[in-house]
Amino acid sequence: MAQFTIKDIARKLGISPSTVSRALHDHPDISDETKKRVVELAAKHNYQPNQIAKSLQNSRTSTIGVVVPEIEHHFFSSAISGVEEVAYKAGYTIMVCQSQEQMVREAMNIRALVAHRVAGIVVSVSRDTTDFSHLEAAVRQGIPLVQFDRVIEELDTSKVVVDDFNGAYAGVHHLLEAGYTRIAHLAGREHVTIGRERFEGYRQALQDHGFPVDERLVIPGGFQEHDGEQGMKRLLELDSPPDAVFAVNDPVAIGAYRVLRERGLRIPRDVALLGFCNNPESALVEPPLSTVAQPAWQMGKAAAQLLFRQFEQKNFTPQTQVLRTRLIVRQST
């Protein structure tokens, strides 16, 4: 079967080969919509540049690719450190890419890492990733791949996650035991595992304490501070605002925190606030933020260890490791 080329992509999409080339290299002059169409078609037909395809038949580099939604998030920077620690001791280096929470950029990163002949990939998917054909393509080409934190359950690879359900359950249970009864949830995306599992923990804790889920108190969003700001503003517009808020992660909680302070509301007297992650800034705000701690460095380390185990074993069977969380109660609740 003939190899799919840039000219083939251009012909199918009705654009020039130069536009295809620039789209594949994330050129700023090419629109996001065009980039998305090009990347999706390239992934569908397993396109690889000719010289890279030849290189892939030979040995791979001693480089590990790491793809995360954003490097500035303390959780991901800590996880990257965990991956690097294992890689360094094994004589490998790491190449870090960030998707900026965009599926199209994530796909470009994966393709670039494959093109650079990385030995393996550690990835945490973006909030927008609903199509994982780019990850499937990497696996089909024999690239060992391990997912962590945010994972695609349908993709048959090793995974490292925390017990998001029970972490969220413990946090909401704490709020209920503290006397809060109208508890809102600033949720993540439902198709992202951590968003779904943390919502389920929230829902189950309420139900086990005899409280139905009030859909008006569940605000879906993303995983960044501006999502917390927007969600908190919506909650404060309700006729009966919440007396406590459980945020899907600490950045979202910090965004909500900022809105509460701007409105002159007292934490926790007017509204209690609980996060998830235990970022350093959660202990530095006033009052300090209660949160559910997840072991970011250990997750990165475990993901890298699974990757190297796959290097060493011919008939490796994908494994899933679930790490425990820990509730940290501070003055915000």
UniProtKB/TrEMBL annotation:
<dbReference type="GO" id="GO:0000976">
    <property type="term" value="F:transcription cis-regulatory region binding"/>
</dbReference>
<dbReference type="InterPro" id="IPR028082">
    <property type="entry name" value="Peripla_BP_I"/>
</dbReference>
<dbReference type="InterPro" id="IPR046335">
    <property type="entry name" value="LacI/GalR-like_sensor"/>
</dbReference>
<dbReference type="Pfam" id="PF13377">
    <property type="entry name" value="Peripla_BP_3"/>
</dbReference>
<keyword id="KW-0805">Transcription regulation</keyword>
<dbReference type="InterPro" id="IPR000843">
    <property type="entry name" value="HTH_LacI"/>
</dbReference>
<dbReference type="InterPro" id="IPR010982">
    <property type="entry name" value="Lambda_DNA-bd_dom_sf"/>
</dbReference>
<feature type="domain" description="HTH lacI-type">
    <location>
        <begin position="4"/>
        <end position="58"/>
    </location>
</feature>
<keyword id="KW-0804">Transcription</keyword>
<dbReference type="GO" id="GO:0003700">
    <property type="term" value="F:DNA-binding transcription factor activity"/>
</dbReference>
<keyword id="KW-0238">DNA-binding</keyword>
<dbReference type="Pfam" id="PF00356">
    <property type="entry name" value="LacI"/>
</dbReference>
<protein>
    <submittedName>
        <fullName>LacI family transcriptional regulator</fullName>
    </submittedName>
</protein>
